[in-house]
Amino acid sequence: xxxxxxxxxxxxxxxxxxxxxxxxxxxxxxxxxxxxxxxxxxxxxxxxxxxxxxxxxxxxxxxxxxxxxxxxxxxxxxxxxxxxxxxxxxxxxxxxxxxxxxxxxxxxxxxxxxxxxxxxxxxxxxxxxxxxxxxxxxxxxxxxxxxxxxxxxxxxxxxxxxxxxxxxxxxxxxxxxxxxxxxxxxxxxxxxxxxxxxxxxxxxxxxxxxxxxxxxxxxxxxx
Length: 223
Fold this sequence. Notes:
Blueprint: E1 13-15, E2 30-38, E3 44-48, E4 57-63, E5 68-73, E6 82-87, E7 99-104, E8 109-117, H1 124-132, E9 135-138, H2 139-142, H3 161-166, H4 168-176, H5 186-192
Parallel strand pairs: 6-7
Antiparallel strand pairs: 1-2, 2-8, 3-6, 3-9, 4-5, 4-8
């Protein structure tokens, strides 16, 4: 099964499919939909409806570092209705009243796939009803406040299977401007990150210094 996201940021894209999962057989067959979040200007509120306890559903939060940093759903948070806040790496605001939990993405963009169990073909109207209760909105709309200034538009580079082979580090340099480096990554981000804006051709991978066998039980230096 292939799921392609074709909507704008902050807009749920729905594709109803009957499926049996081979890689993850514990996930029931059902519908799959998703949304890409742009967290640069402000956090996003994800609202879910009350879902009957016998129906499995899940909302998975995955950032551009491919970290699954949170889950909402029947197994993770229960079947009750709720509002959840997704924030970017540099957000420092207070948690608003009514928010059940705050999830922090390590990058400015985040993918959020939804799964809703479908028992049989006759169950489709019930699935559609559950999906109608999924809501995605900026924090300012949730609080009924004026929206902050919009973030600058992004000129995403053209990419395909061939271009990613020849220009990998250029794409990496572009992507890193939206991903704040963690403590363990700061040296690498200085080498390849957006604040340098270096051509991918100028970037060279650095080999770690050779380790000797002193105290390690090995008789040779690692090369």
